[in-house]
Amino acid sequence: MSRMPSAIQLHKVSKILTLEYGPGERFHLPAEFLRVHSPSAEVQGHGKPILQFGKLGVGLIKVEPAGQYALKLTFDDGHDSGLFTWEYLEQLAQRQQQLWQDYLTELKAAGKSRDPSEQVVRLML
Predict the structure, then answer these.
(1) How far apart are CA 116 and CA 113, in angstroms?
(2) Quick one: fold of 7-110?
């Protein structure tokens, strides 16, 4: 059974979404982490997730409820199509460290960067 956070705070300057579930149960999710793990079709693809890169520095500009079951997050790169259900947000919060490490490993393996101004170009000479 998924739990709805008892408190949700958007920290625009530090680009962090804080979810609180109870005393001592507080999670700080960076906007970049949420953006690369968006549940949208654009990110999740149809069966195979599409690796997001160049999202370092992305921020959240709006957080709004989607019914009683989810949050709609609007990112400053224009992405706003993913609905983050309470269950999905709780999974992201609890598995944040492992998911982030897996993401960094995938980026490296694909020769991609978190930095949007850094593109890996291979020259054939």
Answers:
(1) 7
(2) NE0471 N-terminal domain-like (3.30.2020)
